[in-house]
TrEMBL record:
The keyword Transport applies. Solcar repeats lie at residues 1-68, 79-165, 175-260. GO terms for molecular function: antiporter activity; citrate secondary active transmembrane transporter activity. The gene is LOC107751928. It comes from Sinocyclocheilus rhinocerous. It is found in: Mitochondrion inner membrane. This is Tricarboxylate transport protein, mitochondrial-like. GO terms for biological process: mitochondrial citrate transmembrane transport; neuromuscular junction development.
């Protein structure tokens, strides 16, 4: 959660304002100074509430699509993995990620104001819906679909390619959880470098200043024009650490759960 908070703050911070933070350490220092250590955990509740349904939709859709694409031996090639990952990312973006991320970003952005309006997760959701309607929880949908779609496409492509490389000619070969974790971390790192620009745009489109941008494309143009290309990689370092760990753990859990289900229900 602290990494997510810092990443979001750095992405919301604009050079034109001028910037509030000099970097990651300065962002942490200012937050702890003004709001205490608990300030780094703002937005955690929305993250926790969204993680379980997000993973369920992502892997559920991936399994649904991949089961239709696998060959007779059950193998899925890397290109098919990319397509299934893209479908999984788009599904989770529409069903779960966009509303949850919008609420999370609004919470964190609200924290930086002199008089925060939101007292907690449910109060924040009620206030957003009351003042902006349900569409208030769906800001930046295009950017979120692009971000999640590319995110999961990259992750599942890399993961599928590494898994197939490891198994070689033996599709039944089991993979040690530690190896799965390493593969997941590599896939996570690839997705960070591949789609951080979309993550920055998504964060801006969901912040309290989103009204400044006419569309996703307009947001990208304005960031490039006023802040330069480096702005598209704000929050990369805190995001890299979190994502590598997160993807590694999630893929280990996913692989182990699939192994158990295959034994219990013979789903192969």
């Amino acid at each position: 959660a602290p990494r997510i908070y810092v990443k979001t703050q750095l992405q919301l911070d604009e050079k034109a304002n001028p910037p509030r933070y000099k970097g990651i350490v300065d962002c942490v220092k200012q937050t702890v100074r003004d709001h205490g250590v608990k300030g780094l955990y703002r937005g955690l509740s929305s993250l926790v509430y969204g993680s379980i349904p997000k993973a369920a939709v992502r892997f559920g859709m991936f399994e649904f699509l991949s089961n239709k694409m696998r060959d007779e031996s059950g193998k899925l090639d890397s290109t098919q993995g990319l397509i299934c990952g893209l479908g999984a990312g788009v599904a989770e973006a529409i069903v779960v990620v966009c509303p949850m991320e919008t609420v999370k970003v609004k919470f964190i952005h609200d924290q930086t104001s002199a008089n925060p309006k939101y007292r907690g997760f449910f109060h924040g959701v009620r206030e957003i819906v009351r003042t902006q309607g349900l569409k208030g929880t769906y800001q930046g949908l295009t950017a979120t679909v692009l971000k999640q779609g590319s995110n999961q496409a990259i992750r599942f492509y890399v993961m599928t390619a590494l898994r197939n490389w490891y198994k070689g000619d033996n599709p039944q070969k089991t993979i040690n959880p530690l190896v799965t974790g390493v593969f997941g971390a590599v896939a996570g790192a690839a997705s960070v470098f591949g789609n951080t620009p979309l993550d920055v745009i998504k964060t801006r489109m969901q912040g309290l200043e989103a009204h400044k941008y006419k569309s996703t494309v307009d947001c990208a143009i304005k960031i490039m024009k006023h802040e330069g290309p480096a702005a598209f990689y704000k929050g990369t370092v805190p995001r890299l650490g979190r994502v590598c760990m997160d993807v590694a753990i999630v893929f280990i859990i996913y692989e182990e759960v699939v192994k158990v289900l295959n034994k219990v229900w013979k789903t192969d």
